[in-house]
Amino acid sequence: MNLNNITTDELIKLYDLKPHPEGGFYKETYRSEGFISKTVLPEGFNGKRNYSTAIYFLGKSPSADTRFALMRS
């Protein structure tokens, strides 16, 4: 596979990316072992949360709807 001319579909397959709920594709690359308890989180969170997570994200085409965001996950 020539990485200089790789298509988005080839990248999706190569990195085993999954559809992201808000568009584009992603793969989780890190999830911390530690948690923040639901009891100390603001109202609206449904359960404990990991300290941090990281993902690869690929937008399939330029779009006004694609932007960086802080996710409440």
Fold and architecture overview:
The protein is mainly beta. The protein has one domain. It has 1 helix and 5 strands; from the N terminus they run αβββββ. The chain has one helix spanning 8-14, and strands at 18-19, 25-31, 35-36, 49-50, 53-58. It has a 3-stranded antiparallel β-sheet, with no helix packed on it. It is elongated. 1% of the residues are buried. The model has no long low-confidence stretch (mean pLDDT 85).
Strand order of the largest sheet: 1-2-5
Mean pLDDT: 85
Strand residue percentage? 25-35%
How many domains make up the coordinates? 1
Largest sheet: 3 strands, antiparallel
By DSSP (H or I, 4+ residues per run), the number of helices equals: 1
Name the shape in a single word.
elongated
Number of strands: 5
The H-and-E topology, N to C, reads as HEEEEE
Distance between the amino and carboxyl termini: 35 Å
| Rg, alpha carbons | 16 Å
SS-based class: mainly beta
Helix fraction by DSSP (H/I, runs of at least 4) = under 10%
Per-chain topology:
Blueprint: H1 8-14, E1 18-19, E2 25-31, E3 35-36, E4 49-50, E5 53-58
Antiparallel strand pairs: 1-2, 2-5, 3-4
Keywords:
about 70 residues; mainly beta; two-stranded antiparallel ribbon; 1 helix; about 25% strand
Short description:
The protein is mainly β and 73 residues long. Helices cover 10% and strands 26% of the residues.
